[in-house]
Amino acid sequence: MHISFALIAFAAHLAALVRVLTYRRNGAPHRLPVSWFAWALAAVMGGASIELVLHVEQVGFFEAATAVLLAVFVYGVRGNVARLLWSE
Fold it and tell me: Global pTM?
C-alpha cells in the first residue's frame, strides 16, 4: 500500500514541477519575489520527488494527499505562481 501512495505522490510532484517549469508569461510583468518563490517551489518539488524515490516505504496517505492537492492548485492556476500567492 505504501508503494501506491509513493507512486501517487511522485506523479503529483513531477506533474506540478513540469507545469511550473513550462509556464509562459505571455506579456505578464516580471516580479522578482514571485520568480524566487517559483524557483523555491520547483526546487522543493524536485527534492521531494528525489526523496520519494529514495525512501518509498516512508510515504503515507497524508503526504500523497498533500502532493495531489499541490498539483491540483498548480494546475488550477496553469502554473502561474503569482496567482497562487495573490488573489485577483
Answer: 0.86
